[in-house]
Amino acid sequence: MRDMYVVPPPPDPAGGATVDSAVDGDDGEGLMTYQAWKGSNTFLLQGRLIFGPDARSILLTIFLIVVPAVVFCVFVARKLIDDFSHHLGISIVVFVVVLTLLDLTFLLLTSGRDPGIIPRNAHPPELEGYEGNTPLTPGQTPPLRLPRTKDVVINGITVKTKYCDTCMLYRPPRCSHCSICNNCVERFDHHCPWVGQCIGLRNYRFFFMFVFTSTIICLYVHAFCWVYIKRIMNSEETSIWKAMSKTPASIALVIYTFISVWFVGGLTLFHSYLISKNQSTYENFRYRYDGLANPFDRGLIENFKEIFCSSIPPSKNSFRAKVPKEPAIPPRMVASSFVSSSMEKSAGDIEMGRKPVWDEASGDDDYNGTARNDGSLHEDRGLTDVSPDLSRIIPPQGMEGRSVMHSRRSSLGRKSGSWDISPDVVALAAGIGESKRMASGSGDNLTSDAQQSKRHTRL
């Protein structure tokens, strides 16, 4: 099985921790970040392009863009060149080709780049305000559970940030975990299946330009198809129906662009509204700011400038960087001190008001059970709480008829995870059974002798 690779936590200066040069990834044996990636993304060109798990849908999107453009250039725009002046006729073809290439470029920039993924933590964050070396008093339990939310003040408004159990971090404001890509994305808008990628902080601008360009192409092709039909009507002096029958490609493009413009055009208008309010699709669908002030809204002009004129922050992930092999999991360390498992269990027992029962056979080499509050083995060891105690059923030799109560240790003589009875118990059971059979056999012989003597007496 492939070894797990993660980014190690930073060394603790207070504890005198140092970085081992043998696992710094320079030896050439470590995997790259994209090879050890824990999300559901797909990488191409050795980590230079990152896509979502549904990246194949991009092929369908490209097909829906390129094929109509090719049909328009071959069957419509090429014939319009002769009807217009030389430069104007060629510009019709050039314009649709440029729009199509620009649309495909925005599609690639949207789907093939990091949308703003926040790197996962290799370990949960430290508990604030807790020192592991603080002595525990009876009735006091250390706060071993992280709070689910934290309050952050933005422009004078308190915003709650949630803790992500998968990424083991507190999400920044407007960040959400995508269940499809399995990543936390900054300023998460939505996951678009048509581009096969999350839409977030680093690709929202290109997504809007992709949708907007698609809308312009649909309107452009739709309009010039009607222009071509009109030219046929004027040149042949025929009705619109006969003109449409002479150019089936134009009819197909008119229907296709009419349907498509409702989707891409509706998305363009919807996202224009979201930009004006500085909201995301995720926030809008959850009615995040209904009746509440939006701390990110800075006005119409500033909101558009934030999306289109601000610099895109660099990616927080270096997908081609080497990552060291994951070391063995150390004991829990809080504030440069180690918290043992027995301390945690003891604290949990005190909190629940139960008396801990510790391992009675901790010195045995064959037994590695853990302490349980109910006196039974851990569930991973293969024994349950209802395991029979054979020492209470079969008494030892010389003790028949006596009530003997043994400790639970006698029932733990078996190997961990096995239901086989120890050999001495089997031998003991066999001996008792043999003695009972002998006793019953002798009793039968005495009964038969007595009956024979009575018969002789009667005779």
TrEMBL record:
Organism annotation: Populus alba x Populus x berolinensis
Top EC category: transferase
Polar residues composition bias: residue spans: 442-451
Transmembrane segments: 58-77, 89-110, 206-229, 249-270
EC number: 2.3.1.225
Domain remark from Swiss-Prot or TrEMBL: The DHHC domain is required for palmitoyltransferase activity.
Localization annotation: Endomembrane system
Reaction catalyzed: L-cysteinyl-[protein] + hexadecanoyl-CoA = S-hexadecanoyl-L-cysteinyl-[protein] + CoA
Signal sequence annotation: none
Domain Palmitoyltransferase DHHC as annotated: residue spans: 160-286
Annotated family: Belongs to the DHHC palmitoyltransferase family.
An example molecular function term from Gene Ontology annotations: protein-cysteine S-palmitoyltransferase activity
A cellular-component GO term for this protein: Golgi apparatus
One GO BP: protein targeting to membrane
Protein name per its UniProtKB record: S-acyltransferase
Membrane topology term: Multi-pass membrane protein
Keyword Transmembrane recorded: yes
InterPro entries: Palmitoyltrfase_DHHC, PFA4/ZDH16/20/ERF2-like
Span list, region Disordered: 353-420, 435-459
UniProt keyword annotations, A-Z: Acyltransferase, Membrane, Transferase, Transmembrane, Transmembrane helix
